[in-house]
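Deviations from the work plan: none for this task. Representative record:
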Amino acid sequence: MVNGTTPNVETNGSFSGETGGFITLGYRGTFAFGRDGQADVKFRKLHRILVCGRVQLCREIFGDTLNESRDPDREGAERYTSRLYLKHQCLEKACDNLAEKGFKLVATCSSGANGLATPNPAQGSNAPSDYMNPRNSGDYEEQRWAHYTEYVFYREPQFFHMNI
Amino acid sequence: MVNGTTPNVETNGSFSGETGGFITLGYRGTFAFGRDGQADVKFRKLHRILVCGRVQLCREIFGDTLNESRDPDREGAERYTSRLYLKHQCLEKACDNLAEKGFKLVATCSSGANGLATPNPAQGSNAPSDYMNPRNSGDYEEQRWAHYTEYVFYREPQFFHMNI
Amino acid sequence: MVNGTTPNVETNGSFSGETGGFITLGYRGTFAFGRDGQADVKFRKLHRILVCGRVQLCREIFGDTLNESRDPDREGAERYTSRLYLKHQCLEKACDNLAEKGFKLVATCSSGANGLATPNPAQGSNAPSDYMNPRNSGDYEEQRWAHYTEYVFYREPQFFHMNI
Amino acid sequence: MVNGTTPNVETNGSFSGETGGFITLGYRGTFAFGRDGQADVKFRKLHRILVCGRVQLCREIFGDTLNESRDPDREGAERYTSRLYLKHQCLEKACDNLAEKGFKLVATCSSGANGLATPNPAQGSNAPSDYMNPRNSGDYEEQRWAHYTEYVFYREPQFFHMNI
Amino acid sequence: MVNGTTPNVETNGSFSGETGGFITLGYRGTFAFGRDGQADVKFRKLHRILVCGRVQLCREIFGDTLNESRDPDREGAERYTSRLYLKHQCLEKACDNLAEKGFKLVATCSSGANGLATPNPAQGSNAPSDYMNPRNSGDYEEQRWAHYTEYVFYREPQFFHMNI
């Protein structure tokens, strides 16, 4: 092969025989402000990492790290779901897993939540003052910074790779 | 062919004879918090997946999964519309359909809603307390996380592919 | 020509002699909720599509579909403006026009509006209750979902294309 | 040269001898609603275009159009700063300047402001009614649509270009 | 070398022997409005630049500029963390460091904060008027513009580079 250039195929070449498709990682996140909002550094704090896409593809990538307990219908390889999530909370690890399997991050988007969560729904109140005392100012700050972020990954189907 | 490099054509080569163009998928989404906001995992919850673009192109890609009932003007292949939507709610399936037809996801963007929806417009009230009691705290949370997201896809016209 | 590869030039090759540059499309948008917020599907609803960039370049791309009536200074091919807009409201059509002329969508971004619009400024009130009665709950919903979105397009200058 | 393919180097080749790096353009923007919120078209309205990055690189690109008056420390070519801004307000012109020098727009992001600005801080009030009368409804609308947008540009260092 | 095409490998080729992976930079930012909100130019103002990813990879890139004091578990090269941050506040410098080591910026996203921070939690009040007097209107403006931004970088593993 004289000219087998495969530039810009941003995958690591280690996969074979799989099909392509989109997988979306999503999470609701904020920052850890500590008990009194006084933590010296506010690190990222993620809720569960949700996984959406074709079930078979998600299983291939995440294997044992995938929690399927809330995805009731176990049949149908071609089935799509948005009821999977990861057992760990390491976003970059999940991204690395996807890249190792030939996926490419093609887009991300993020949006802030609006308004404040209910500290105690039974009280029927959402006044800011409920959040603001020395004990729970950290909670309040975590509400302020709540956001939802989505990472969209895509892998080309294999027959493309064979063409080049 | 000495030098048939087709690097970075991020399509799967399986289409022929079609024209290029932009198609936008959009949806208003949130998370499913359950009756009392107590669901153990809050999964993605989508409203209808809207489809915008040239009618003929949208039909070619989505075929029977496309709901055209709200797009009154059926004539004009070159016509553009923003009144189509999908019959299913699987975002990744829609993305896979587009990729199979040579489309590439070129951009996404997202923005949060602001303020709260009206639980019962006739009551003329939007006080947070309307949302916050043990029965509807889940509704309130779903309002907080409401967002609109857009996925922009593009396919190059075929005569480009013939040039290489 | 032994090696005329032009991979990944994501243009259709149909242009010649033009210069490169950035053009931004922007629009304020929301969803059509209908008179009582009861429309069965809420489609995208755009305000005017604004066009920003070098005047000559914008004219070349959009021709007769460009409204220049609010751009007072007609002189200066090298002049930049943010006072142009399209006569139609089809976002995907505008994108297709740009792609046909060799432009590539390089980025998009979106942000939600905050607070509510003034239904009747003379009344000097912005209480949510002004929006929430059976007659205008659709207006209120449209305010909630208001957002601004920007599509950034770029075309490489032609002398690059001549080099390859 | 048998095989001088430089596909997808999205630069125009006109620069030489410069180093690579990131430069970020940022601006706070909104729309011009006019005195009474009655302007027939609401065009983009930018505050100053901020420039962040290595000082020497910013100077090379923007030359005389760069305002350095607020960047007190003039020494150190390797110094980074976020205290530069442009003398003009044409975003697309700034983007074109960067592209002409071999920079590529690699990402953009945008976020809405939250709450309302203070029309007159001395009055100690931020009630919506302060904004909503026939005279200042345009001001109020401009507050609603306030957002911050960032354009991230990157240029590869030259020794890469010499390799190909 | 007959066919040494390395198109679109957007790295500078200066690294060797490293592995690939994702690294995320994140920061909460706003603008500096000055004591009375009267600073003539409002420059970007960043809180700490957070670094997330595989510990070993983060160390390789940022070396001495990485603050690891809040990452209690020092063992495990394969460990992922979100408890690292940079000692400096120059975003573009951090980006340049990543690019020098073969990383590519693949995505960014941003979301606004919602609501206002607590100026003095012990007072239990968050009324806008607390922010709006001649002395602290700058604080208020800084709250309005608070946002969180994430830059996602990726480096391909080295064995890909050896293939070409």
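Chain C touches chain A through three residues (CB under 8 Å).
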